[in-house]
Amino acid sequence: MSKASQTPFKPIERIALGNRLLRLPDVESKTGKSKQAIYAAIRAGTFPAPVPIGRNSVAWLEAEVDQWIADRLTDRARNRAQRKTNPTTQPGKTA
Crossing angle, helix 35-44 and helix 24-31, to 10 degrees? Predict the structure, then answer.
C-alpha cells in the first residue's frame, strides 16, 4: 500500500449549505473503492467516516469525499514531481 493512502483524513468541522449526503453506492462509484475497502480505510483513519442519518442508515458528506479525492490527486502530483527531480533506475534500464 502506498504512503499516500495512509495519510490520516481530517474531517470537515462545518459545511456549506447545499452540501450533499452520499449513500454507499454513490461513494463506491465516486471513489472506485469497494464497500470493504471503504470501511477498511475508515478503520485505518485514512477515509472520512460516515455520519448517521437514521437508525440503520449512514451517509458521507460529499465535501469530505471530494476532499479525499483531491488529496489523492495532490499526492500523485507530488510523487510525479519527486520522480522528475530524483529519477531512479529501473531494472534493465540505465539512467
Answer: 90
Tell me phi and psi for residue 61, to 5 degrees. -70, 125
Residue 94 lies in a domain: no
Task: Please state whether the predicted TM-score (pTM) of the whole model is above 0.90.
Answer: no
Of residues 57 and 3, which shows the higher confidence score? 57
Average pLDDT over residues 18-42: 96
Q: What is the mean pLDDT of residues 52-62?
A: 96
Compute the average pLDDT of residues 62-85: 92
Residue 48 near residue 60 (C-beta atoms within 8 A)? yes
Structural domain for 62, as ranges? 19-85
Q: Which amino acid is at 86?
A: N
**What are the distances in angstroms from CA 3 to CA 6, 7, 41, 89, 93?**
5, 7, 13, 21, 25
CATH code for position 54: 1.10.238
Per the structure, the count of domains in the chain is: 1
